[in-house]
Amino acid sequence: MASSFEVAVVGAGSSGLSAALTLGRSLRKTVVLDNGTYNNHAAATSNGFLTRDNVPPPALREAGLKDLERYETVEVRKASLEAVQPKDDDSGFVLQLADGSSLEAAKIIFATGARDVLPEIDGLEALWGKRAFHCVYCDGYEVRNEPIGFVMGKGMPPPVAAMFIAQTANWSDKLTVFADGLEVDDGTQALFKASGYEFYPSPISSMSEDGDGVAVKTETGDEIKLKGVFVASSSEPACKSILEDLGCEVTADPMSGSFVKVDDQQKTSVPGVFACGDVQTPFHTVGIAAAAGFKAAAFVNFELCVGKMFKIKAEAGLA
Ligand SMILES: Cc1cc2nc3c(=O)[nH]c(=O)nc-3n(C[C@H](O)[C@H](O)[C@H](O)COP(=O)(O)OP(=O)(O)OC[C@H]3O[C@@H](n4cnc5c(N)ncnc54)[C@H](O)[C@@H]3O)c2cc1C
């Protein structure tokens, strides 16, 4: 018979580990599934999370797993989720795993993270997390006051991009803006000039490592050497098809990608299914993911407690 849990947390990144910690502290029989595909694997350090600033991402995960060790109701399994079916009696879900086994859980928390969708620039993927970054709060400090770049994204209107570029300039006034072929109106170009940015309208032909920096080549033959480059990228949920097959609503935003829709209690559109972290927000940072994990777990626990209360009420024949 398939093993049975009150809660299955899918994903042992910052959001899933945080959810599991709160569920352990709530005495919930919990299984945490993780298949070891880490979106931030290329980053040398993870920055900006209280007490865990400037640590390698594996150290952050190991610390999170260690925190779980003292909670005997929490089990962590290396396993890959392949599909989820609601049980016929509405008492929960059957989770099918890649090794052919299955397990049951009354509630599920998707903490499966996101897959970054990068502009098609030769060499960019290899530099992602090393010289090319998604977030100034994660990596801006490390390249402060150095020559840096900003690649405008195709889904972002130039006046909106201008605001993110102004934010990036907080870390360095030696800023080069790449339109990467995006049409930029005269007013925005004039603003870039008045702000002191270098501006290259041409598509980028390649990016490559250059010492401890990055060389950006444009299709018009320019080569610009920078310490790092911030890229307006988008993302989509990991496990998107599993979530969609289950009936969870996924919303799309032309600027930042697609996300599982959740309410302010981290509930998806499917009763009993919650989501937290990068899978449901464009704000990809450890702190936000961990906070959402805590919240998802607290509302899962609340729902289980209230469910029990209504059962007692019904069994006692109370109105
Ligand atoms: C290159 C890079 C650098 C970054 N640097 C920083 C930084 O310096 N500071 C910062 O705050 N944030 C940083 N971030 C963002 C941060 O890493 C994320 O916001 C955070 O990890 C999100 O946590 P999460 O739990 O939502 O997802 P993740 O950490 O991505 O965890 C998702 C987990 O789900 C598991 N999983 C997925 N699918 C399945 C499945 N089918 N079955 C089982 N398990 C599954 C994966 O194995 C993974 O462990 C960076 C991101 C990237 C890409």
Largest sheet: 7 strands, mixed
Would you state the CATH class of the largest domain?
Answer: Alpha Beta
Rounded mean pLDDT is: 96
**What structural category characterises the helix and strand content?**
alpha/beta
Describe this structure in words.
- There is one protein chain.
- By secondary structure, the chain is α/β, with parallel strands linked by helices.
- The chain folds into two domains: 3-116 and 234-315, FAD/NAD(P)-binding domain; 119-231, FAD/NAD(P)-binding domain (3-Layer(bba) Sandwich), CATH 3.50.50.60.
- The protein contains eight helices and 19 strands.
- The protein has helices spanning 14-25, 57-68, 124-127, 136-139, 158-168, 186-195, 240-246, 286-315, and strands spanning 3-10, 30-34, 74-78, 81-86, 93-97, 102-110, 114-117, 132-133, 148-151, 175-178, 198-200, 204-210, 213-218, 223-226, 228-231, 234-237, 250-253, 257-260, 273-275.
- Strands 1, 2, 3, 4, 5, 6 and 19 form a seven-stranded mixed sheet that branches. Strands 8-15-9-10-11 form a five-stranded parallel sheet.
- β17 (250-253) and β18 (257-260) form a beta hairpin.
- α1 (14-25) packs parallel to α2 (57-68), α1 packs parallel to α8 (286-315) and α5 (158-168) runs parallel beside α6.
- The chain is elongated.
- The model has no long low-confidence stretch (mean pLDDT 96).
- Residues 10-16, 33-40, 42-43, 46-49, 80-81, 111-113, 116, 128-129, 138, 238-239, 277-279, 284-287, 289 line the site of flavin-adenine dinucleotide (FAD).
- Flavin-adenine dinucleotide is lined by residues 10-16, 33-40, 42-43, 46-49, 80-81, 111-113, 116, 128-129, 138, 238-239, 277-279, 284-287, 289.
